[in-house]
Amino acid sequence: MTRVAIVSPSSRLRASLAAALRASPSFEVVAVTASDSNLPPSAEVVLVAHETEDSLVPAEPTRGNAVVGTVLTKREREILALLADGLANKQIAARLGISKNTVKTHLELMFDKLGVSSRAEAVATGVRRGLLLL
């Protein structure tokens, strides 16, 4: 079972996402909140969702556009925070006790999820989507 925390400024969106995830036996919702300031450490995945201007039309994941429901794993969030601190892959690997190749794999997956192609773009997108607080 995957433990999920839901973060969204919209109470309607938080309630809808929580209801949908609770309906699945694969997920356990451990937090539903408007900000990521008090997320429980037990959350394995943090779902950050923002409503689009036209909330009746679902947002399509496209490069450069805000994506509703960007989901990063706990490890990807850790690596994103270390990217924001300016660490290189070798430093991230040493800090987390993993190999440089594992860091590269996490970065590739995170870049795909965020729809970005560089470290700087990942950090900027993370800040814009509320995944990082600088």
Describe this structure in words.
There is one protein chain. The chain has 134 residues and is of the alpha/beta class. 42% of the residues lie in helices and 16% in strands. The chain is built from five helices and four strands. The chain has helices spanning 11-22, 74-84, 89-96, 100-114, 119-128; strands at 2-7, 27-33, 45-48, 70-73. A four-stranded mixed sheet has the order 2-1-3-4. Strand 1, helix 1 and strand 2 form a beta-alpha-beta unit. The longest helix has 15 residues, at 100-114. Mean pLDDT is 83; it is low at 54-68.
Produce a short descriptive summary:
With 134 residues, this protein is of the alpha/beta class. The chain has helices at residues 11-22, 74-84, 89-96, 100-114, 119-128; strands spanning 2-7, 27-33, 45-48, 70-73.
Secondary-structure map:
Elements: E1 2-7, H1 11-22, E2 27-33, E3 45-48, E4 70-73, H2 74-84, H3 89-96, H4 100-114, H5 119-128
Parallel strand pairs: 1-2, 1-3
Antiparallel strand pairs: 3-4
List keywords for this structure.
single chain, 134 residues, alpha/beta, 4-stranded mixed sheet, globular
The largest beta-sheet arranges its strands as 2-1-3-4
Q: How many helix segments?
A: 5
Please trace the helix and strand order, writing H or E for each element. Answer: EHEEEHHHH
Beta content comes to: 15-25%
Q: Structural class given helices, strands, pairing?
A: alpha/beta
How many angstroms does the end-to-end distance come to? 31 Å
Q: What does the radius of gyration come to?
A: 15 Å
Quaternary organization = single chain
On the 0 to 100 scale, the average pLDDT is: 83
Runs in which pLDDT lies below 50 for 5 or more consecutive residues are: 54-68
User: How many strand units?
Assistant: 4
Shape: globular
Relative helix content: 40-55%
Largest sheet: 4 strands, mixed
